[in-house]
Every structure is written in structure tokens, then in C-alpha cells.
């Protein structure tokens, strides 16, 4: 999977693409940890290019949420595709992390 | 392999024997039901209800146990060989250890390296021993210890060890091996194929012990469990996970971890918000005495609590609600904090502290923190707003989605019980996953070698199983099928046998010494109804256990009655009254030196055996000298006592047992493997 990083209005956007699964989850988690450690605790994970996520991927998002919150920030997810939404519902994680429709929505509601 | 030990081959049930088994089971349960109806309706001697009722209850317990066993074996499933595995399945092999000797762990880990299916091998060292790390690295084996997140948080024993490793590895499947369970090279080739079914979460293989002699006085081998019982449970899609020698689908475990995280956050946030009303009201009362700013801030926080609860009721996401709540609290407290900081700085200056004391803001809450000694000075000067804000800060920590009371927000292996395997397996089944029991010995381990270790191990299993029953009753658990409910309940029910054993052991003593008769008469009716039930029941076990030794299991279910009772009382104390259970790691190596006879461990059984013997003597003497007792009564009770004594005698055998010295040839092999 690919992870691209950009910054808008003081928020770091991590754009992920490809398969967000047990193989790639540790890399995403590490990237979030590094971003927070570098001083940016407001993070949006853009899932628009993710075509598959599994529970390990969700685990990385939860771990990232914890890191961001502990630094006084927050982690949000945006632009989830159909498969991602299904998995979020299946695990009930949508009750904690509701995906924003677009990255812009996620940034503006801060 | 020791001389005379049974060969490590699993015995299977043929279709013809299964047919016979079903017929005999039905007949046995019918006979038992008739007998019990007669016992309740016509035979209870209410004059001595205090023993008559416990005895008939004990017999009812046994009949229910019989029904549950009947359900279990009704659907015995013979799987045979697994289909060929998908060629791209990736596997992590975990060897779990806490304090076992490095050599022993390495023997297992090196055997794990030799597993033919492509895989990564890791040693999960909960003891974080440098010498273990060095040995693992020298052999090119992965080495995993707890991350810093676990410091000062609940460790959750083996479940915690596995959960820690799960987040540091990435194989599609994981195989769990206890430190002493040496796998065969083909273990994954033989089992992975069952995961062709995308709903299959777990494949369990038998546990077989290589250091046990043919007579197995400690009852270590469990051929009835790793055989008809597991196969029967498998027939109901309820094959149990037994902690080792099993392969698990990572996705299934991780999904449990994610749903568990959601549940934990929901209940913790709700509980904190609901409890906050009382805390905040108290803080408000204190603040109102002349501190309008703080009172105002607290009322803003209370408003935030109400909004948060209302939002949650409307179905808002916990992430958003907690984030908004935290922002509200930060804003509300900022004005007070700014003012207080100024005040505190002035107070500190007055006390002779300079700026260097440093008042820092808590990174999570934004609320100021001061050094302990300074804080003490301040509170003695009655700066109450600080105290009020501290309570608010605590509330903020709880109304969050970080699950900060645990080391990891995601805990895939269940942490509700000391037997994490059963609890996790039940969660998997409740979530709709399947499990399989693969009836082929693919790893051999080391059983306890002395009675003390064996007793500790049995106690832990029983405690863990009863913890699960009390915390998460399978009969009521959502998501389980009726058959699965019964299969879990059957195992839990079997651990209640200690109380029944007490009645079985005491009733003949009371009759033979004091003439206390729990039934109206031990006459022909009793014999006519009891004998067929008893014989048919024996026949069931004769068929189901054909070719394996099931007698040890029977003996131990009665002979360990003090352990079973202790397990019940401690589990109840733990779950209902919050008392410590104490986690016991079963040692894998025997303690050195000569061991004395363990009177302290088995005195209740010895005492009962003495009582039973004296009771028979008393009965015979009374029969010859008085008319208190009947011939048939003394006869029945004497046979009963003899049965009890034969069963209990296993504990003496166990206490006298000394493990044979390890085979010198095997020692050499171990040396070679390690070096």
C-alpha cells in the first residue's frame, strides 16, 4: 500500500491506497506515531483509495486514534469506500469512528 | 518415548460403534431418569433431609451430567485428513514462555523452525530474560517481549503476552505452542487446509504428553477429552480452543479485538458520564463557597455531560462526542486555570518558591499539574479549586476513546478469565466463527511430574472455566447456537462435581456409623432401578472410551473434590466479591531433590478414606451386635465404600509417584538441538 502525506490548515492528511490489511497496518500505525511525535496531533486518514481493509487495519486506526488523543489531538477518517464502510459496521467501529464524507468535511468540522 | 507408554496415535470412533453408542446412551439416560423419578418421588427419607436431600441432589447432578455427555457424543465428528492448504497462507508460530528454562524453550522453538510449511517463528518471552533473547537471536528466531505500554497496567498473563505479540506480527494465521509443546514438522501442512472454509477461525489438535508412564498416575493424558468429547463438541461446531497446539486465523481474533474495544469504550464512557453527575455536584457545592468562576466552569462541564449523554442517545459517534466533551471541559476550565495560575504563582512566591518549580499542563487534559510537595503546600492553604479541577481531569481521562486503563486499546485474546483459551473461543463462536478439532497428535509436551504441580494446574483450569461461567454464562450468551451453549455449559457443569462428591462420600459413613438412612430402604426396588442405570452408564463409557484409558479421568473427577470445591469458592469470591484469584503458572520442570510425602496437599482425601474404612468396621460390628442396621443396607453401603476407596486411591498413587529420570538418549538429542 502507498501512504502519502500532505498538510492543510494545520491538519496532516495521510492518504492511503491499496490494501489496508495485516501486512500494511503496522506501517500506517508507525506513520501516525511519527506524525504525532513530530508535533502534528490532528490527523485525517483519507481512505478514498483503499479498496480493502481488514480488522488489523482497523486496529491500526484505533491505535493511531489513541496516540493522537494522548497528544491532545484527534484522528479522523474520511472518504471510506463501500468495503470499508461494511467492515466498520460489521465490527461496530462506526459507533466510535464515523467516516467523514470528504477530507474537507473532516478538516472543517474541527 | 518412555517404555510402555501408549503409542501417540489417536483412536477414532467407527460409524458402527457410534450407532451402538447412541442406543446405549438413550437406554442409560432412560434408566437414569426412571431411577431419579423414583428417588425424588418415593425414596427420600425426609426424617434425615439434611443428608437425604444433598444425596438425591448429587444424583440429579450426575444424571444432568449424563445428559450433557449424551448430547456431546451424539454428534461425534470424524474429520479425517484436511484438504490441501491454500499455497499463499502465511503463518506466525508463537512459542509462549514465562519462566521455563531456556533449553526447554529452545528445544520447542528449534522444532518450530523445522516446521515444513513456510512460516515465521517467534518466542514470546513474558519474562524478558536476556539469556532467552540471546539464545533466540543466535538461532535466528524472532523474539518478542512486552512493549512499554504494559508498564503499570494489567498484564493479563498469557492472554496479554499473546495480545502484545499480535500487534507486532502480521501472518495471516498464527500457531500457538506452549514452551514444552514440541511440534512435528508436518503440523501446519496437516491443519491449514481446514481454513479453506472462510468462516473457520480455529483448528485445535490434541495435547499429548511424552513424559508420562503407561499407568499415568497423575491423570495427565486426557484421551476422553482429546477424542470423543472434542469430536462431539466439533459436531456442534463448538470444538474448544485449549491454549496450545492450535492454529488461529488472525482476522477472527483481530475482529474480536475491535468489537471488544468498541464495547469497552461504550460502557466506560457511559459509566463515567453517568457517575459524573454526583462528582460534579459535590465539586460545585465546594466551589460555590465564594468562588464564582470555578462554580461557573463546573456548571459548564455539567452542561457538557448532559449534552454528551443526549448526543450518545441520539446515536452520535463516541469519537465525536468525547472530542466535543473534552473541548468543552478545556474551554470551561481555561479561564479558571488562568486565574488560578496567577494566584498560585503569587502563593508560591509568598512561600519562597521561584518560577523554576514549573507548573506544567497535563498533555492530555490541558489542566495544570504541579509537583507533589508544592501541591501539598497549596492544598493545606485550602485552594479548593485545584481539587475540584482534579476531579474534572479524572473525568476527562475516562470520557475518552483511548481505553487508557489497558496497555492496548485492542485486546484480541479475551482477558476476562485465567483460562483465556475457553473465553476467547466462546467469543469466536458467539461472533459466528467456526472451529475444528483435528484428531491427530502433531505436538508432544511435558506433563506435570508431581502431585503438587498437577493439583495447581487442575485448580487453575477449574477456576478459569468457572470464571467464564459466572461472568459470561454461555446459556444466556447472545450469538451462540443452542448446541454451542450446551457444549460450553457441559464443561462448566462438570467442574461442580466437588459438592456432589461430598454427598457421595459422606452418606455411607453416616449410615454405617449412626444408622442415618437417606433413603426409605435399601431394598429390592432400589437394586432393581439402580443396577440397570449403573451398568448401562458403565457400558456407555466402555463403548465411547474403547481402546483408550478413561478410568483415570473418572477417578480424578471424584478424588479431586477438594480442588473442585476450592475452585468454586475462589471463582465466586473473585467474580462476585472482587477477591484476588492469583494466577498460577504451571512449572514445566520438577523441583530438585527428594520430595517428602505431600500430606498437606491431600489430607482431605486421606481423612475421608480413613472415615470410610472405620465406617465399614462400625457397620459390621453393629450388624453383629445390634438390630440398628439391615444386611442389605450394610451390603450396599460396603460396596459403595469399596468403590469410593478404589476411586480415591488414585490420589495416594499420585502422591507416591516420582517421575522417571529422563531418557539419556533424549538428553543428548536436546543438547545437540540447543548447540
TrEMBL record, chain A:
Q: Where does the STAS domain start and stop, copy by copy?
A: 1-110
Which GO terms fall under molecular function for this chain's record? anti-sigma factor antagonist activity
Write down the InterPro entries for this protein, in alphabetical order: Anti-sigma_ant (IPR003658), STAS_dom (IPR002645), STAS_dom_sf (IPR036513)
Top-level taxon of origin: Bacteria
Question: Which PANTHER family does the record cross-reference, listed alphabetically?
Answer: ANTI-SIGMA FACTOR ANTAGONIST TM_1081-RELATED, ANTI-SIGMA FACTOR ANTAGONIST TM_1081-RELATED-RELATED
| Family, as annotated | Belongs to the anti-sigma-factor antagonist family.
Name of the featured protein: Anti-sigma factor antagonist
TrEMBL record, chain B:
- Which residues bind Mn(2+) per the record? 158, 178
The record's listing under Pfam families reads: Cellulose_synt
> Which InterPro entries has this protein been placed in?
Cellulose_synth, Glycosyltr_2/OpgH_subfam, Nucleotide-diphossugar_trans
Q: Which domain of life is it from?
A: Bacteria
Q: Name one GO biological process term.
A: cellulose biosynthetic process
- Where is the protein localized? Endomembrane system
**Annotated membrane topology:** Multi-pass membrane protein
What are the transmembrane regions?
19-42, 48-69, 486-507, 519-544, 556-577, 597-617, 629-652
> GO cellular-component terms in the record?
endomembrane system; plasma membrane
GO-annotated molecular function: cellulose synthase (UDP-forming) activity
Q: What keywords is this UniProt entry annotated with?
A: Glycosyltransferase, Membrane, Transferase, Transmembrane, Transmembrane helix
Entries under PANTHER family matching the protein: CELLULOSE SYNTHASE CATALYTIC SUBUNIT A [UDP-FORMING]
Protein's recorded name? Glycosyltransferase
Organism whose genome encodes this protein: Nocardioides humilatus
Amino acid at each position: 500500500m502507498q501512504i502519502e502525506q500532505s498538510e492543510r490548515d494545520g491538519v496532516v492528511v495521510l492518504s492511503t491506497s491499496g490494501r489496508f490489511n495485516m501486512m500494511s497496518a503496522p506501517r500506517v500505525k508507525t506513520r501516525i506515531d511519527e506524525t504525532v511525535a513530530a508535533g502534528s496531533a490532528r490527523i485525517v486518514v483519507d481512505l478514498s483509495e483503499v479498496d480493502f481493509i481488514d480488522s488489523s487495519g482497523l486496529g491500526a486506526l484505533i491505535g493511531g486514534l489513541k496516540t493522537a488523543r494522548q497528544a491532545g489531538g484527534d484522528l479522523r477518517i474520511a472518504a471510506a469506500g463501500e468495503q470499508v464502510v461494511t467492515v466498520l459496521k460489521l465490527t461496530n467501529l462506526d459507533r466510535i469512528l464515523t467516516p467523514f464524507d470528504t477530507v474537507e468535511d473532516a478538516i472543517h468540522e474541527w | 518415548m518412555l517404555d510402555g507408554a501408549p503409542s501417540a496415535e489417536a483412536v477414532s470412533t467407527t460409524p458402527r460403534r457410534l450407532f451402538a453408542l447412541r442406543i446405549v446412551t438413550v437406554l442409560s439416560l432412560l434408566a437414569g431418569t426412571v431411577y431419579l423419578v423414583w428417588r425424588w418421588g418415593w425414596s427420600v427419607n425426609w426424617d434425615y433431609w439434611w443428608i437425604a436431600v444433598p444425596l438425591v441432589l448429587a444424583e440429579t447432578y450426575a444424571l444432568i451430567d449424563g445428559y450433557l455427555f449424551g448430547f456431546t457424543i451424539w454428534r461425534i465428528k470424524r474429520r479425517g485428513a484436511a484438504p490441501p492448504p491454500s499455497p499463499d497462507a502465511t503463518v506466525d508460530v508463537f512459542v509462549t514462555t514465562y519462566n521455563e528454562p531456556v533449553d526447554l524453550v529452545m528445544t520447542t522453538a528449534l522444532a518450530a523452525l523445522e516446521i515444513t510449511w513456510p512460516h515465521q517463528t517467534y518466542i514470546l518471552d513474558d519474562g524478558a530474560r536476556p539469556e532467552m533473547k540471546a539464545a533466540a537471536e543466535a538461532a535466528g528466531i524472532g523474539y518478542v517481549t512486552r512493549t512499554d505500554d504494559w508498564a503499570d497496567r494489567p498484564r493479563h498473563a498469557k492472554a496479554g503476552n499473546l495480545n502484545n505479540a499480535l500487534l507486532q506480527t502480521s501472518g495471516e494465521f498464527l500457531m500457538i505452542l506452549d514452551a514444552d509443546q514440541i511440534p512435528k514438522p508436518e503440523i501446519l501442512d496437516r491443519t491449514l487446509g481446514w481454513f479453506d472454509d472462510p468462516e473457520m477461525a480455529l483448528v485445535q489438535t490434541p495435547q499429548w504428553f511424552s513424559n508420562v508412564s503407561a499407568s499415568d498416575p497423575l491423570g495427565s493424558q486426557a484421551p476422553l477429552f482429546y477424542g470423543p468429547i472434542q469430536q462431539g463438541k466439533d459436531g456442534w461446531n463448538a470444538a474448544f480452543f485449549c491454549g496450545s497446539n492450535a492454529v488461529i486465523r488472525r482476522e477472527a481474533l483481530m475482529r474480536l479485538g475491535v468489537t471488544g474495544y468498541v464495547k469497552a469504550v461504550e460502557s466506560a464512557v457511559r459509566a463515567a458520564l453517568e457517575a459524573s453527575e454526583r462528582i460534579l455536584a459535590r465539586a460545585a457545592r465546594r466551589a460555590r463557597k465564594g468562588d464564582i468562576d470555578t462554580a461557573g466552569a463546573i456548571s459548564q462541564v455539567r452542561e457538557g455531560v448532559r449534552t454528551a449523554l443526549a448526543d450518545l442517545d441520539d446515536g452520535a459517534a463516541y469519537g465525536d462526542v468525547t472530542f466535543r466533551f473534552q473541548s468543552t471541559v478545556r474551554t470551561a476550565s481555561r479561564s479558571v486555570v488562568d486565574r488560578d495560575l496567577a494566584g498560585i504563582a503569587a502563593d508560591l512566591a509568598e512561600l519562597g518558591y521561584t518560577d523554576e518549580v514549573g507548573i506544567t499542563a497535563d498533555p492530555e487534559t490541558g489542566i495544570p499539574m504541579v509537583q507533589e510537595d508544592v501541591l501539598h503546600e497549596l492544598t493545606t492553604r485550602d485552594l479548593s479549586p485545584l481539587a475540584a479541577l482534579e476531579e474534572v481531569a479524572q473525568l476527562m481521562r475516562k470520557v475518552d476513546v483511548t481505553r487508557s486503563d489497558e496497555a492496548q486499546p485492542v485486546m484480541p485474546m479475551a482477558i476476562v478469565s485465567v483460562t483465556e483459551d475457553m473465553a476467547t473461543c466462546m467469543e469466536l463462536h458467539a461472533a459466528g466463527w467456526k472451529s475444528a478439532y483435528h484428531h491427530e497428535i502433531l505436538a508432544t509436551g511435558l506433563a506435570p511430574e508431581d502431585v503438587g504441580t498437577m493439583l495447581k494446574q487442575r485448580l487453575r483450569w477449574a477456576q478459569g472455566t468457572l470464571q467464564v461461567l459466572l461472568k459470561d454464562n454461555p446459556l444466556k450468551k447472545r450469538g451462540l447456537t443452542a448446541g454451542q451453549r450446551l457444549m460450553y455449559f457441559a464443561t462448566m457443569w462438570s467442574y461442580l462435581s466437588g459438592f456432589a462428591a461430598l454427598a457421595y462420600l459422606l452418606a455411607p459413613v453416616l449410615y454405617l456409623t449412626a444408622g442415618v438412612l437417606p433413603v426409605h430402604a435399601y431394598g429390592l426396588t432400589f437394586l432393581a432401578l439402580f443396577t440397570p442405570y449403573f451398568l448401562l452408564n458403565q457400558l456407555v463409557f466402555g463403548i465411547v472410551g474403547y481402546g483408550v484409558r478413561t478410568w483415570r479421568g473418572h477417578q480424578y473427577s471424584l478424588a479431586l473434590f477438594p480442588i473442585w470445591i476450592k475452585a468454586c469458592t475462589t471463582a465466586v469470591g473473585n467474580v462476585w466479591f472482587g477477591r484476588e484469584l492469583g494466577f498460577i503458572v504451571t512449572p514445566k520442570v520438577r523441583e530438585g531433590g527428594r520430595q517428602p510425602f505431600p500430606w498437606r496437599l491431600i489430607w482431605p482425601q486421606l481423612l475421608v478414606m480413613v472415615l470410610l474404612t472405620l465406617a465399614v468396621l462400625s457397620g459390621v460390628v453393629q450388624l453383629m451386635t445390634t438390630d440398628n442396621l439391615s444386611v442389605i443396607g450394610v451390603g450396599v453401603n460396603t460396596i459403595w465404600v469399596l468403590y469410593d476407596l478404589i476411586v480415591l486411591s488414585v490420589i495416594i498413587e499420585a502422591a507416591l509417584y516420582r517421575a522417571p529420570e529422563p531418557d539419556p538418549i533424549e538428553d543428548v538429542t536436546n543438547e545437540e538441538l540447543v548447540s
